[in-house]
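Input structure tokens:
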């Protein structure tokens, strides 16, 4: 899979290097949830049947971050995570269009005439509610006419679960409420955060529950503050543990950014500086302030037992 960064307007060099008949799925695709997968899989299938390469076009940074509106609070799939998943879907080319103020003002006409036509897109595959161009004025139906009928357009019907359209914003809402199982059903996999283990305040070991403090490698959306049963992938080993996402109100009054602390079961190696990914399996309870360290320690012991039985029952 090749990744191509594009800036509008496209240069002659970029066009010369990338113009080829190809099937293109277009969208923000943050999360690469089951709805996104149905669009991209449809593009991959169509490409195979036409014997053409399959491509995906996405935008970076997230338009909601640039336009400072909506529910943006990080990425469900920051760039490297998105690449990993797109690769597994069988995509040949990924075009990442730089999303900035100027690009947000490109009209639907100029998007088609200045990007899709020069790249020789044979078929564009989009979801039923795809919008593009300045103020989202363009829709799927307009793609074909704006290209002077050179472009085939496939529109993918809504992917629903229990009657609801699977969406990135729904997954953000679920994570913000600690509903990690709902998020996992919509994602088609458990939500995971990739990061590096940093030095913490060194209190964990003293209280009998050493924790790995995870600094996310990219700007991941964090789930609601609280305690979670987790699975951890470390150098190919699958470990299990319990994670606190929070500000440790028993020790601090500040409202600093939440930290991610993982107590791994049956593990006592040195993790400082190591890369891990942590999969959220189940929410256990909200974070709270304890009156004494003994009470906190007793509760963490119970959390660990709860997490173990949840992990045993989880597939
Ligand atoms: C499973 C688990 C649950 C936790 N729950 C809370 C909590 O509810 N309130 C709190 O103030 N700290 C909570 N903590 C955070 C501990 O206070 C923290 O792990 C300890 O202070 C060590 O921090 P350090 O790594 O910065 O030294 C929890 C930690 C774990 C591992
Ligand atoms: N559930 C779905 N079923 C079919 N197509 C979808 C679904 N969700 C998104 N798409 C399509 O995937 C592409 C990318 O959409 P987008 O990233 O805006 O998805 P979204 O999850 O609806 O996002 P948000 O919740 O932030 O509005 C678009 O073409 C869109 O129409």
């Amino acid at each position: 899979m090749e990744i191509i960064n594009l800036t509008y307007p496209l240069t002659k060099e970029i066009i010369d290097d990338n113009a080829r008949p190809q099937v293109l799925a277009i969208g923000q695709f943050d999360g690469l949830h089951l709805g996104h997968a149905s669009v991209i899989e449809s593009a991959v299938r169509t490409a195979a049947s036409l014997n053409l390469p399959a491509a995906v076009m996405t935008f970076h940074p997230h338009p909601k971050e640039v336009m400072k509106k909506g529910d943006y609070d990080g990425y469900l799939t920051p760039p490297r995570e998105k690449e990993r998943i797109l690769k597994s879907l069988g995509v040949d080319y990924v075009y990442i269009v730089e999303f900035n103020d100027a690009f947000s003002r490109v009209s639907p006409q100029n998007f088609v005439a200045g990007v899709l036509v020069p790249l020789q897109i044979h078929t564009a595959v989009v979801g039923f509610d795809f919008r593009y161009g300045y103020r989202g004025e363009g829709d799927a139906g307009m793609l074909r006419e704006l290209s002077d009928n050179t472009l085939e357009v496939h529109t993918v019907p809504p992917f629903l679960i229990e009657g609801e359209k699977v969406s990135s914003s729904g997954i953000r809402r679920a994570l913000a409420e600690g509903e990690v199982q709902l998020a996992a059903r919509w994602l088609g996999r458990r939500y995971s955060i990739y990061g590096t283990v940093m030095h913490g305040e060194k209190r964990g070991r003293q209280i009998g529950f050493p924790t790995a403090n995870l600094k996310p490698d990219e700007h991941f959306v964090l789930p609601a503050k609280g305690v979670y049963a987790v699975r951890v992938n470390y150098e190919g080993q699958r470990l299990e543990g319990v994670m606190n996402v929070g500000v440790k109100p028993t020790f601090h009054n500040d409202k600093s950014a939440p930290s991610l602390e993982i107590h791994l079961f049956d593990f006592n190696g040195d993790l400082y500086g190591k890369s891990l990914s942590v999969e959220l399996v189940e929410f256990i309870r909200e974070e709270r302030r304890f009156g004494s360290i003994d009470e906190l320690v007793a509760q963490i012991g119970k959390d660990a037992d709860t997490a173990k039985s949840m992990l045993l029952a989880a597939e």
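Residues 293-313 form the longest helix (21 residues). Residues 27-30, 35-36, 38-39, 126-130, 156, 158-159, 165-169 surround adenosine-5'-triphosphate (ligand 2) (CB under 6 Å).
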